[in-house]
């Protein structure tokens, strides 16, 4: 079994204030300072340590590639969300992971936040099968397409454009904090679900291109996934 997942996060304002020793600045100015002083990239996107989780969506798939079960959470009680994702991940003993930049962001976020809340992660998350850089049990699409950094890392949105599939219809990542401030948690989760389905579709294309899935099976799974993606992009349930 494989667990395809994605997290949605917002800046941990309280922690950032402690790190910068700034209890006075307005949030906009604080985040601007954080981008300048704490970010390690030209975009100003904060490293995983400075994020807190507000939503996650996971999709269990069979080893054959077929979807089995969706699980999800969104809310303001981060500890509860962590407990739920760790419980979900622990459903199967020898699971694998599939994600887009999960090694660089999502998994470190889970580790940092588990430490913050005094929680234990599933033991499997730290097994050699998962931690090994070239593991076939922990598939990061940015590694697969960049040949582990030999080439540039592709954005999920651009991978969708390459294969003619529109991704990112619900919103962009930098809009999540604004949605959170408006208490639109259901919308954040819906946005996260689109990312997971997009990741699943790109993974299917990758597996077919690599010769791991026969054509008839690929076409069946792709068509079903595309139908679900269209339902997601039509908007969240009323």
Fold blueprint:
Elements lengths: L1 E10 L1 H8 L6 H11 L13 E11 L5 E8 L3 H12 L6 E4 L2 H16 L10 H4 L6 E3 H6 L9 H7 L13 H6 L3 H25 L5 H19 L5
Parallel strand pairs: 1-4, 4-5
Antiparallel strand pairs: 1-2, 2-3
Helix pairs in contact: 1-2, 9-10
Describe the structure.
Helix content is 48%, strand content 15%. The protein contains 10 helices and 5 strands; from the N terminus they run E-H-H-E-E-H-E-H-H-E-H-H-H-H-H. A hairpin with a 5-residue loop joins strand 2 and strand 3 (67-74). Helix 9 (185-209) runs antiparallel to helix 10 (215-233). It is globular, with a radius of gyration of 18 Å. It starts with a strand and ends in a 5-residue tail after the last helix.
Radius of gyration over all CA atoms, rounded: 18 Å
Main CATH class: Alpha Beta
Q: Which term fits the overall shape?
A: globular
Secondary-structure element string: EHHEEHEHHEHHHHH
Strand residue percentage? 15-25%
Annotation field: number of helices: 10
Summed over residues and divided by their number, the pLDDT gives a mean of: 91
CATH architecture: 2-Layer Sandwich
The helicity comes to 40-55%
Largest sheet: 5 strands, mixed
Widest beta sheet: strand line-up: 3-2-1-4-5
CATH topology descriptor: Nucleotidyltransferase, domain 5
How many domains in all?
1
**How many β-strand stretches?**
5
| Terminal-residue CA separation | 32 Å
CATH superfamily grouping: Ribonuclease H-like superfamily/Ribonuclease H
Uncertain runs with pLDDT below 50, 5 residues or more? none
Structural class label: alpha/beta
GO molecular function: nucleic acid binding
InterPro entries: 3'-5'_exonuclease_PolB-like (IPR019288), RNaseH-like_sf (IPR012337), RNaseH_sf (IPR036397)
Pfam families: DNA_pol_B_exo2 (PF10108)
